[in-house]
Amino acid sequence: MADHGGSLEAIAASVQGHLDAALAELSAAAAAACSLLAGAEQQGRRPVRADLAGIREKLQACLHRPEPPMDGIGIAVAADYLADSAYWLEWWRLGRGGGLEFVAHSLNPRRDAFYDYSSRSWFSSPAASGQTTVTGPYVDIGGTNAYTVTLSLPLITGAGFAGVAGADIPAARFERFLVGPGRGLQPMVLANADLRVIASSSADHLPGALLEDRLADSPNKVPVAAGLHGQAPWFLLLL
Questions:
Q1: Could you tell me which of 74, 90, 98, 97 has the C-alpha nearest to residue 25?
Q2: Which of these, 209, 191, 204, lies nearest to 139 by C-alpha position?
Q3: Which among 10, 23, 218, 219 has the fewest CB atoms less than 10 Å away?
Q4: What digits encode the pLDDT tens for the residues 199-237?
């Protein structure tokens, strides 16, 4: 650890900085959504989809920034919270050509292709805990079909839980912190608390793979995202 600790800690700090930047953008979007919904509640009525019209510009602005820390961001409304829609998902992502794309899903429970986002961990975890959570890496089926990490936090208004704001970060985004000049030749892995690989500098440890249990006690590792609302931290590890 003595030969590599400084570089590991510096890389861990860079990863943490990326997460912090994404969380700051997400928190601002969540605050804007809560303000729009609270405005309707204060009028003594249940919000409708039109009350959230202003959030689209806010979400798009997050992705229009130079080198945005996430590739997708959106709002998922709690089931039956809106008066005119049982489910609603306002989600945007960066397209391959750099333009913005609305992420469309089937939100009709009577359809076979219904996307029940309320059952997904990125939604159900903050809904149950009332805290910010990090989910993944997981394959974003129906989205990018790539390994993704999602930051999510609950939307709380005067009426209680109103939904979740989330930001998607492709696992591949974290590889740039692990490779390049000064990183050395020893393989390096970024993994979550369950020992699932998020990013790696080695072709032998691909995103989504599980590391051996013995590596949990390795002296050559440092925590990342430690103490995020009580969640177990990620860690950066030399193999």
A1: 74
A2: 209
A3: 219
A4: 999 889 999 999 999 988 888 889 887 656 556 689 999
- E-strand spans in 84-159? 88-94, 100-102, 133-139, 147-157
- If one counts every other C-beta atom within 10 angstroms of the C-beta of residue 20, the result is 13
With beta carbons less than 8 A apart as the criterion, state whether 153 and 174 touch: no
Dump pLDDT digits (tens) for 14-40.
Answer: 999 999 999 999 999 999 999 999 999
Is the pTM higher than 0.85? The answer reads yes
DSSP per-residue letters across 8-45: HHHHHHHHHHHHHHHHHHHHHHHHHHHHHHHHHHTTTS
Residue 119 tokens, joined: 């059952």
Locate all alpha helices (DSSP H) within 113-229, ordered by sequence.
121-129
